TrEMBL record:
This is Phosphotransferase enzyme family protein. The keyword DNA repair does not apply. It comes from the Bacteria. One of its GO terms (molecular function) is transferase activity. Keywords: Transferase. Residues 22-231 form the Aminoglycoside phosphotransferase domain. Signal peptide: none annotated. InterPro entries: Aminoglycoside_PTrfase (IPR002575), CcrZ_PhaseVar_Mediator (IPR052077), Kinase-like_dom_sf (IPR011009). Pfam families: APH (PF01636).
Length: 267
């Protein structure tokens, strides 16, 4: 199957190109080389790629082509860089780039123009409820987590929505040859409370006693409202990831997440 995909890309590009898969969950990303030119190709990547490229958030977009079947192929500059290490997520440049993303009116306008409705707390709770019903899951820890999410809905209401990346894992932060920082893989991005991204990043990488200093670099003050909202989104995302693993029968990961959720609820 992978060979067929590579052949399709080679036919699309024409003679002289060497293509190999770039990995990733979708299997629709490739690295193509012709002489001195090397590009990163992706089919049906984020429609916001042009804005992300123009703002220097992702590597430069070189061209976009629409296929006869309606699919869109994009080519980006392939950076010869590396992923950030987990400990590097503390750095001020990470806070600065995330602040730039959350503060981008151009990016937000683009999301709104294509009908992207904000991912609000009530929408998140309803989505989780539907998934739990689908899987017929009855578990004390998950039920306690859902009760916390529902009881705190009024507390975590927030009117300021931004474009959130939603997967700020250190593997998605890339440094190029010139030490330029990028945040890649925008397929899961949405409009939501910035506390969604902030909570996932801080809880995953930054010791709690350093949160205030990191957030100062980002440009906000750590107050009780932000703290509560970040906590809420981390609990909701943890339940969501647990259900993802449950659907794939990865029960060891499910049990680990249940313990993590329990620790969050005991905070």
């Amino acid at each position: 199957m992978m060979k067929l995909r590579v052949n399709w890309v080679e036919q699309f590009l024409g003679d002289g190109w060497k293509v190999h898969p770039a990995g990733g969950a979708t299997g629709e990303a490739y690295i193509a080389q012709q002489g001195e030119q090397t590009v990163f190709l992706k089919r049906n990547s984020s429609p916001f790629l042009a804005v992300l490229s123009a703002e220097g958030i992702v590597p430069k977009l070189l061209w976009t082509k629409r296929l006869e079947n309606g699919d869109v192929v994009t080519a980006q500059k392939l950076i010869q860089g590396r992923e950030l290490k987990a400990y590097e997520m503390k750095e001020s440049r990470v806070a600065a780039l995330l602040s730039k993303i959350h503060g981008s009116s151009e990016l937000l306008d683009m999301f709104k123009r294509i009908g992207n409705e904000p991912l609000t707390p009530i929408v998140i709770v309803e989505n989780l409820r539907r998934q739990l019903q689908l899987f017929h899951i009855e578990d004390e820890t998950i039920e306690a987590g859902m009760k916390y999410l529902f009881d705190a809905l009024e507390v975590v209401k927030h009117e300021h929505y931004v474009v959130c990346h939603c997967d700020i894992n250190h593997n998605n932060w890339m440094l190029d040859e010139e030490d330029q920082l990028y945040l890649i893989d925008w397929d899961g991005a949405t409009v939501s409370d910035p506390a969604l991204d902030l909570g996932l990043l801080l809880y995953s990488y930054i010791p709690e006693h350093e949160w205030a200093a990191w957030l100062k670099q980002y440009g906000v003050k750590l107050d009780s409202s932000l703290h509560e909202r970040m906590h809420w989104y981390v609990v909701s995302q943890s339940i969501s990831v647990l259900l993802w693993h449950y659907g794939r029968q990865q029960y060891e990961e499910v049990e680990q997440l249940k313990m993590y959720i329990q620790s969050l609820l005991n905070d």
